[in-house]
Amino acid sequence: MTEYRIEKDSLGELEVPAQAYWGVQTQRAIQNFPITGLKPYPAFVWSMAMIKRAAAEVNAGLGLFADKEVDGKVVSGDAMAQAIMMAADEVIDGRLADQFVVDPIQAGAGTSHNMNVNEVIANRANEILGYGLNAKPKPIGSNDHVNMAQSTNDTIPTAIRLGCLWRLDELVETLDKLAAAFRQKSAEFDDIVKSGRTHLQDAVPVRLGQEFGAYARAVERDREKIVLAAEGLRRLGIGGTATGTGLNAHPEYHPRMILVLGRLTGLTLHESDDLFESMQSMADPVHFSGALRTLAQDLTRIANDFRLLSSGPSTGLDEIRLPAVQPGSSIMPGKVNPVLAEMLNMAMFQVMGNDLTVMMAGQAGQLELNVMMPIIAYNLFQSMDVIINAVNAFTDKCVVGLKANPEKATGWLAKNAILVTALNPVIGYQKGAEVAKEAMATNRTVREVVVDKGYLSGEEVDRLLNVRNLTDGGIQK
Question: What CA–CA distance (Å, rounded) separates 265 from 251?
Answer without folding.
Answer: 23
